[in-house]
Amino acid sequence: MTFLSSVVQWLTEPFLYGFVTRGLVAGLLAGIACSALSAFVVWRGMAFMGDAIAHAVLPGIVLAYSLGIGLFFGALGAAIFAVFGIGLLSKDDRLKEDTAIGVMFSGLFALGIIMLSRSTSGQDLSHVLFGNILGVNTSDIGYMAIVVGIVLISLKLFHKEVLVTSFDPAHAVAIGLSPSLIRYGLLMLVALTTVIAIQTVGVVMVLALLVTPGAAASLLSHNLKKIIRLSLVFSTSATVVGFYASYYGNFPSGPIIVLTLTVFFLGAFVYVRLRRI
Q1: How many CA atoms within 13 Å lie on the side-chain side of 110?
Q2: Angle CA 269–229–50, to nearest 5
């Protein structure tokens, strides 16, 4: 057997199994959604909010598992509750938004941990914390595809509105836009994306998939379209690395994907520094 044929066999062997193929498709779908939003999450300073939503979905997932309904719907319900709960708390002028985020994030995550510890199925839900790219089923793929479609279509339709409210809120108000409404819409997209990304990287590390691709791409370009394209390259490449590491090395997919993204970010950072020198 030649070296080339060995490489081809190594690359194609995982696709002999349907569950493995579904895992890669799921990872790529999550990467597409996250990379499309990543630049806006970074530019608008929404990283903490993304982290809060990711952790706040845990009680919804545990509850959904206990009731025997789809984990997607439990996570989505908890994410929506967190978004509107944070918005309600931060309406009080005496309470800043980051404080409201911290309260909601820590409270719901603590509740989820308690529910998880009391559940006899805690071992079955361990993949929620750290991700399991090979545990995706066909219905998960369908939900993820719908979410990716919603994210891409929404960003396409409201591209100008999101840009204006991101960089010049005063001008947005002057031309009749509502920065608060646009923010809530963007937060809902982040919530949807967080829910589907949990399957691949888990609750603990979903923030990296939302932030790191956009942060690395922002170091290399100031053009939004280029940043989104670079984010897509980074996230999908990291997903493929995590996919093969999970299959051949029996590593958890989430940490490998995040480590790969971190390497991309550090590489971009060093490259920019060297160019300046």
Answers
A1: 6
A2: 75
CA 22/CA 200 separation, integer angstroms: 11
pLDDT given at position 92 = 65
Q: What pLDDT score does 121 carry?
A: 53
The pLDDT of residue 272 = 92
Amino acid type, 175: I
User: In order of start, what are the domains of the chain with their CATH numbers?
Assistant: 19-276 (1.10.3470.10)
Distance CA 189, CA 184 (A): 9
Mean pLDDT split into 10-residue runs, the chain, 277 residues: 77 79 85 87 78 83 82 85 81 73 85 79 60 75 90 88 78 79 85 82 77 91 87 91 83 82 94 87
